[in-house]
C-alpha cells in the first residue's frame, strides 16, 4: 500500500530488518523489499547483499521470501542477474534437499515437500539459466532428478512438474532433457483434469517449431483431445493438430481434421477450415487430392470460409487442365444436392460456365457415368438464380455461367433478359450488358466468352494495376515512365453517383484543366483548357482500351476524320473487364486565337498531319458499357 515516496524513506530500515535475528521479521522484511523493488526499481541495489545472505537460512518462510526477492531483482536489472548467477549451486543444493528429504509435517503437502518453495526456486533457476550455458549445465542434473522423482498422480506434484518443464524448455538444456519435458507434457494430456490438458497443449504449441519430432510422438493423444467436450481444450487441440501436419502425415491428419470440421462448434468452423486450406495447399500429395479436400470443406462449412477461398479454388481448378472434366462433374452433383453453401455454389457455377460442355460429353473416366442434358445444366443454374438462399454475388456467378454457356451448348438469351429489370443493381447491370452482347455485338460474343486462360498467382502485396500506375496514368503533363500492364482483376461495381455526375474536373495542374462531361451512359467528353501564360509544348495521353476491341480499334485508327469539335474525344462501343493500356503522344498543343484565349484544340497527328478520331479512346477504365472514372 506504500507510495513511492514512502518506499524511499523506509528502504534503509527494511534493509536493516533483513539482517534481524528473528526469522519471522526477516520473512516479512523480504516481502516488503519485494514490494519496494516493484514500486521503485532503482532501490533494488540496496537489497542485493542482504538477499544473497538470506539463501543460507534454514527457515522455509525466509527462503521463500529471499527467492522471490532475488527473482524480482534479476528480472529488473541485467547486472544484478549476472551477480546472482553465482548462486545457482546454492539454489541447486536447496532444491535437492527438498526433493530427497523425507516426510516433514511442517512442510509436506500431499506427499511433496514444500511445493511452494520448489516452484519458486524453479522459477528463479529459469531466470538465471536463460541464455547462459554455464548456469544451465549446473542445473541439468537437478531438473532431471525433479522430473523423474516427483509424483504425478497428485495436483501438487503436477504443479512442480509443470514448472520443471517450463524451466527445461526455457534454458539451454540438453536434448535428452527436453525430450523428457515433452513426454511429461504428453502425460499431462492423459490427465482427467481439463486445466492440466489445456496448459499441456499450450506449452506444446510453443515448442512444436523447435522440437517438432518430440511433439509428433504424441500426435494421437493430441488428436483425441479434439473430441473433448470443453471448447477451450478443443481450440487448443485444433491449433496444435494443425501445427503438427506435415508432408508425411497429411493424409491421416486431414481425415481427423475433416471429421472434426463436420461436428465442431460453429465458433471453430472458420478457424478449422482456414487451417485445413493452408495445410492442404502446403502439403497436398496431388492436385486431385487437393481439390477433393477443399470441396469437402466447402460442402461441410461453405458458409464459414474466408472470401479468398473461392478465387483460390478457381485458380487451382484452372491450372489443372487434366482434372477439368472430373471437377465439373463433381461440382455439378454437389450443386444438385445442396445449394445452401454459397462458396461451393459459386465455384460450381463458375466451373459449369467454363467447362459445362464437358458435362454433356460423358467422357470422364474418374466418375460414375451420368447422362446430363443441356436442359439439366440450365435448370441447375436457374435454380440457383431463383433460390432465396442465393446471395447477390452467387446469382452473379450463375448469370455469368449462363451467359458463357451460350457459346458452348445453346443460346440463353431469354434467361439473361429476364434479369434486366432485377431489383439488384449489380445483377441488373450484368443482364443488360450481356443482353447487349447478344443483340449489338453478337459477332464478338464467342471471343469475349471464350474460356479463361491459366490464372497466375500474385504474391503478397503485388497488384498489377497499382496506385502508382494509376497516378502515372493521370499525370498527363509528364513523360512516360514505364509501360503499364493490363489489369486482370474484375472491375469493382460502379456506384450510381459516379454515373450521375454531368461535369467535373479530373485533372488540374499549373493552369491546365481537364474537364469531363458525361452526356450519356456511352459517351464521355474530355475538354482541356489552358489558363497559364505559356503554351503547352508536350502532352501525353494514356488510355485504357478493351482487349476485345483491339482489332477493331486498330482498324479505326486508319480512318482519318477531320473537324474534331472543341477538342473532345468520344467513347462509343462495348467495353469489358480486360484492358490494354495504350499511350499516344501529342506533338503539340497550341493556344487558340484572341477570341477564345483559354481554349485548347487537341489534335492527334499521324504521318502527313492527318487528324485521327478515336471512337474507342478514353481516359477511363470501363466496365461493360458503363464508365468508371479512375481518380
Automatic annotation (TrEMBL):
Transmembrane segments: none annotated. GO terms for cellular component: AP-1 adaptor complex. It is a peripheral membrane protein. It is found in: Cytoplasmic vesicle membrane; Endomembrane system; Golgi apparatus. Pfam families: Adaptin_N. GO terms for biological process: intracellular protein transport; vesicle-mediated transport. Residues 1-441 form the Clathrin/coatomer adaptor adaptin-like N-terminal domain. Its main location: membrane. Keywords: Cytoplasmic vesicle, Golgi apparatus, Membrane, Protein transport, Transport. The keyword Oxidoreductase does not apply. Belongs to the adaptor complexes large subunit family. This is Adaptor related protein complex 1 subunit gamma 2. It comes from Nothobranchius furzeri (Turquoise killifish).
Amino acid at each position: 500500500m506504500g507510495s513511492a515516496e514512502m518506499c524511499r524513506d523506509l528502504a534503509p530500515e527494511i534493509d536493516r530488518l533483513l539482517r534481524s535475528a528473528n526469522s519471522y521479521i526477516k520473512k516479512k522484511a523480504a516481502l516488503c523489499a519485494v514490494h519496494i523493488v516493484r514500486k521503485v526499481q532503482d532501490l533494488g541495489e540496496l537489497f542485493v547483499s542482504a538477499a544473497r545472505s538470506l539463501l543460507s537460512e534454514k527457515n522455509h518462510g525466509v527462503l521463500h521470501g529471499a527467492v522471490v526477492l532475488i527473482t524480482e531483482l534479476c528480472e529488473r536489472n541485467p547486472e544484478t542477474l549476472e551477480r546472482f548467477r553465482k548462486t545457482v549451486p546454492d539454489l541447486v543444493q536447496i532444491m535437492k534437499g527438498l526433493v530427497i528429504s523425507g516426510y516433514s509435517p511442517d512442510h509436506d503437502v500431499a506427499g511433496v515437500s514444500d511445493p511452494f518453495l520448489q516452484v519458486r526456486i524453479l522459477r528463479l533457476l529459469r531466470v538465471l539459466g536463460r541464455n547462459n550455458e554455464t548456469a544451465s549445465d549446473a542445473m541439468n542434473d537437478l531438473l532431471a532428478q525433479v522430473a523423474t522423482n516427483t509424483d504425478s498422480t497428485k495436483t501438487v506434484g503436477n504443479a512442480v512438474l509443470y514448472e520443471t518443464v517450463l524451466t527445461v524448455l526455457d534454458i539451454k538444456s540438453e536434448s535428452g532433457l527436453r525430450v523428457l519435458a515433452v513426454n511429461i507434457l504428453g502425460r499431462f494430456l492423459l490427465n482427467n483434469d481439463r486445466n492440466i490438458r489445456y496448459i499441456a497443449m499450450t506449452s506444446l504449441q510453443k515448442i512444436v517449431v523447435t522440437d517438432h519430432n518430440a511433439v509428433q510422438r504424441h500426435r494421437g493423444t493430441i488428436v483425441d483431445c479434439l473430441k473433448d467436450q470443453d471448447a477451450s481444450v478443443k481450440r487448443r487441440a485444433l491449433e496444435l493438430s494443425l501445427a503438427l501436419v506435415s508432408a508425411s502425415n497429411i493424409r491421416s491428419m486431414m481425415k481427423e481434421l475433416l471429421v472434426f470440421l463436420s461436428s465442431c462448434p460453429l465458433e471453430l468452423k472458420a478457424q478449422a477450415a482456414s487451417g485445413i486450406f493452408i495445410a492442404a495447399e502446403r502439403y497436398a500429395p496431388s492436385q486431385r487430392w487437393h481439390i477433393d479436400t477443399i470441396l469437402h470443406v466447402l460442402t461441410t462449412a461453405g458458409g464459414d470460409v474466408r472470401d479468398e477461398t473461392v478465387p483460390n479454388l478457381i485458380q487451382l481448378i484452372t491450372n489443372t487442365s487434366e482434372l477439368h472434366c472430373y471437377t465439373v462433374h463433381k461440382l455439378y452433383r454437389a450443386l444438385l444436392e445442396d445449394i445452401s453453401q454459397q462458396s461451393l455454389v459459386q465455384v460450381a457455377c463458375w466451373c459449369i460456365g467454363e467447362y459445362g460442355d464437358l458435362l454433356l460429353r460423358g467422357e470422364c473416366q474418374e466418375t460414375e457415368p451420368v447422362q446430363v442434358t443441356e436442359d439439366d445444366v440450365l435448370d441447375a443454374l436457374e435454380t440457383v438464380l431463383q433460390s432465396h438462399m442465393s446471395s447477390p454475388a452467387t446469382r452473379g456467378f450463375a448469370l455469368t455461367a449462363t451467359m458463357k454457356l451460350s457459346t458452348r451448348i445453346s443460346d440463353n438469351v431469354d434467361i439473361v433478359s429476364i434479369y434486366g429489370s432485377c431489383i439488384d443493381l449489380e445483377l441488373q447491370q450484368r443482364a443488360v450488358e450481356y443482353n447487349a452482347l447478344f443483340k449489338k455485338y453478337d459477332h464478338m460474343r464467342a471471343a469475349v466468352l471464350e474460356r479463361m486462360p491459366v490464372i497466375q498467382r500474385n504474391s503478397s502485396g503485388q497488384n498489377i494495376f497499382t496506385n502508382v500506375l494509376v497516378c502515372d496514368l493521370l499525370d498527363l503533363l509528364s513523360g512516360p515512365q514505364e509501360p503499364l500492364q493490363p489489369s486482370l482483376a474484375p472491375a469493382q461495381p460502379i456506384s450510381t453517383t459516379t454515373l450521375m455526375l454531368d461535369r467535373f474536373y479530373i485533372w488540374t495542374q499549373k493552369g491546365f484543366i481537364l474537364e469531363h462531361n458525361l452526356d450519356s451512359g456511352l459517351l464521355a467528353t474530355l475538354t482541356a483548357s489552358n489558363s497559364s501564360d505559356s503554351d503547352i509544348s508536350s502532352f501525353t495521353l494514356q488510355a485504357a482500351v478493351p482487349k476485345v476491341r483491339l482489332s477493331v480499334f486498330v482498324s479505326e485508327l486508319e480512318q482519318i476524320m477531320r473537324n474534331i469539335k472543341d477538342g473532345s474525344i468520344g467513347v462509343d462501343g462495348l467495353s469489358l473487364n480486360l484492358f490494354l493500356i495504350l499511350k499516344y503522344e501529342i506533338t503539340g498543343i497550341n493556344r487558340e486565337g484572341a477570341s477564345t484565349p483559354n481554349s485548347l484544340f487537341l489534335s492527334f497527328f499521324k504521318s502527313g498531319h492527318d487528324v485521327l478520331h478515336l471512337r474507342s479512346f478514353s481516359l477511363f477504365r470501363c466496365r461493360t458499357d458503363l464508365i468508371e472514372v479512375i481518380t
